[in-house]
Amino acid sequence: MAVWAIGDIQGCYDPLKRLLEKIDFDPKHDTLWVAGDLVNRGPKSLEVLEYLYSIRESVEIVLGNHDIALIAAYYGIKKSNESIDPVLQSPMADELIDWLRQQKFLHTDYTLGYCMSHAGISPEFDLGMAVEYASRIESRLKSDDVAVWLKQMFKHGVERFDRKASHIDIDRYILSSFIRMRYCYKDQRLDFDQKGTPTEKLRAKGLKPWFECANRKEIDLKIIFGHWSTLGFYQNDEVLSLDTGCLWGGALTAARIDVKEAEIVSLDCTAEAEITL
């Protein structure tokens, strides 16, 4: 039995299948962790969802911003595009969206010593807080009034965590931190706009990757995340970044995490994007 974590797929079904063949992944025995952004922009979002759904008993998924956008498009909150139209037009659309709504924003495994979220864990959250707040928005996503809730989530985000804020603003912060975060300021405010590679110029402006934020609360598990193709593969004792830009002709990367030192396997990708920004 092996446990593999994989970065953002974004509809790149063919590279996904080639990578799984390369690592000899067998859903009968092995487990696959997926760090979010299963769909959008790539050419085969429907095929990705159909495949992962077919092996759902062997998969642990956290949702990313593109997955939430797909769910929102299903409810008419966001516009669709040609890369996710096949999902929404599929006879399995209701089943697939309902399955996505049951997925997590944070997955933890204390035995393996890892947790996983699409964008990471807010510097303001310790692990207990992260688990609690992930559960909070997971419940919202599963609720009967999910469409009303999602519509509120797409309004302007909140950069700071404030326990005294409205329930909606707290939810916006929680959701944004789990699916959109990349940078933070020294006062732990999050920046949801900057998408580029960390540079000294950005650091001079006070922007650091969230995992370098001063006074970031300690997380006892190593955090696996994706969402940041311009950061690419990155690993230290505290984090493991696995979005290596397959969509943009980079690579799709998997890490075996049930071994003492993570085994990293990458597959070079051709330009897969059906760019629909």
Rounded mean pLDDT is 94
CATH superfamily assignment? Answer: Metallo-dependent phosphatases
CATH architecture tag? 4-Layer Sandwich
Which word captures the global form?
globular
- CATH topology title: Purple Acid Phosphatase, chain A, domain 2
What's the CATH class label?
Answer: Alpha Beta
Residues in β-strands, percent: 15-25%
Which radius of gyration do the C-alpha atoms yield?
Answer: 18 Å
**Could you state the oligomeric state of the chains shown?**
single chain
Q: Could you tell me how far the N terminus lies from the C terminus, measured between alpha carbons in angstroms?
A: 39 Å
Strand order of the largest sheet: 3-2-1-12-13
Number of strands: 13
Count structural domains: 1
Order of helices and strands: EHEHEHHHEEHHHEEHEEEEEE
The low-confidence parts are 273-277
Number of alpha- plus pi-helical segments = 9
* Percent helix range: 25-40%
- Please describe the biggest sheet, giving its number of strands, its sense, and whether it closes into a barrel: 5 strands, mixed
Structural key phrases:
277 residues; alpha/beta; Purple Acid Phosphatase, chain A, domain 2; globular
Would you give an account of this structure?
With 277 residues, this protein is of the alpha/beta class. The protein has a single domain, classed as Metallo-dependent phosphatases (Purple Acid Phosphatase, chain A, domain 2, 4-Layer Sandwich), CATH 3.60.21.10. Helix content is 31%, strand content 16%. The protein is built from nine helices and 13 strands. The strands form three sheets. The protein has a five-stranded mixed β-sheet, with helices on one face. It has a five-stranded mixed β-sheet with strand order 4-5-9-11-10, with no helix packed on it. Helix 1 links the parallel strand 1 and strand 2. Helix 3 crosses helix 5 and helix 6 packs across helix 8. It is globular and about 45 Å long. The C terminus is likely disordered.
